[in-house]
Amino acid sequence: MAASDMAAEIVAIGEPMIEFNQTEANARDYLQGFGGDTSNFCVAVARQGGRVGYVTRLGDDTFGRSFLDLWKREGVDTSGVATDHEAHTAVYFVTHDERGHAFSYLRRGSAASRLAPANLPLDVIGGARYLHVSGISQAISESACDAVLAAVEHAKRSGVAVTFDPNVRLKLWPLTRARAIIDATARLSDIMLPSFEDAQTLTGLDDPEAIVQHYLALGPHTVCLKLGGDGVLVAQGASRVRIAGHKVDVVDATGAGDCFDGAFVTRLAAGDSAEAAARYANAAAALSTQGYGAVAPIPRPADVRAMLAAH
């Protein structure tokens, strides 16, 4: 049975973005793909076999219809997706050079930025087991920020676990506001999924142990600190488990953290422990860096398990 044939047990809220990814450093050619951290998350869940749904708004345009086609192919439930006839679907560009990859955005006034508490599909959110939210979704507009917090509050009232990736983008909002909103959301979250770089920016701390302790103290019962090529640190109460990274030939790291998040929550929903889920997600994220774009390289379970078996 396809994922869309049953109610979603994992739901994300946020902004999908059409991606144009530079095919090589300093090239003039771009490969069109799909991005947006929470959309990437949904595809990652679907490819790992999870039942996932998305809450967002799309423009009434070619790119919006392309997303609907993508989610249908991947098995992402779209009953929480609305079409906004007065706004566009957002676009971003990824460029590459010797320093790594950089992002440029065309997202101001996007359909998803017009998310608001009044247009949330509360039945979709309340019917899930997990709600995944992101700092980017909170940063794109004040109404979207309010919508994310309203979704989180409804999830809490409904007994839905909240997973949260701060995913800091300082081009979208000032650091002082980012810190305040992200800390407030962390206090309402069950699971935090920050990257080391984002956590450094938000907390001013450089020690992974100090960072996970900081976030545990805010209220989440689990913190997975993503350390890129160095793996992940999983913290629960007094327990600390360091999972080593996988050595791979990195082509493009775009969306690797989103892949980790989706794979991690999928495995939690399947009954894995946080440590086992993180081991799986760590391998999935490594595999996702071996191709261009945020969505195309997201692996399937057979490939993830082959990597785990090899290590």
Give a verbal description of the structure.
The chain is α/β, with parallel strands linked by helices. It has a single domain, classed as 3-Layer(aba) Sandwich (UDP-N-acetylmuramoyl-L-alanine:D-glutamate ligase), CATH 3.40.1190.20. The protein contains eleven helices and 13 strands. The protein has helices spanning 37-47, 62-74, 122-126, 135-139, 142-157, 175-188, 196-203, 208-218, 256-269, 274-288, 301-310; strands at 10-13, 17-22, 30-35, 52-59, 77-84, 90-97, 100-106, 130-134, 161-165, 191-192, 222-226, 232-236, 239-243. Helix 2 links the parallel strand 4 (52-59) and strand 5 (77-84). The radius of gyration is 18 Å and the shape is globular. The two termini are 32 Å apart.
Distance separating the two termini: 32 Å
Adjacency order of strands in the biggest sheet: 5-4-1-8-9-10-11-12-13
Here the CATH topology equals UDP-N-acetylmuramoyl-L-alanine:D-glutamate ligase
Question: CATH homologous superfamily, by name?
Answer: Ribokinase
CATH class: Alpha Beta
Secondary-structure map with pairings?
Blueprint: E1 10-13, E2 17-22, E3 30-35, H1 37-47, E4 52-59, H2 62-74, E5 77-84, E6 90-97, E7 100-106, H3 122-126, E8 130-134, H4 135-139, H5 142-157, E9 161-165, H6 175-188, E10 191-192, H7 196-203, H8 208-218, E11 222-226, E12 232-236, E13 239-243, H9 256-269, H10 274-288, H11 301-310
Parallel strand pairs: 1-4, 1-8, 2-6, 4-5, 8-9, 9-10, 10-11
Antiparallel strand pairs: 2-3, 6-7, 11-12, 12-13
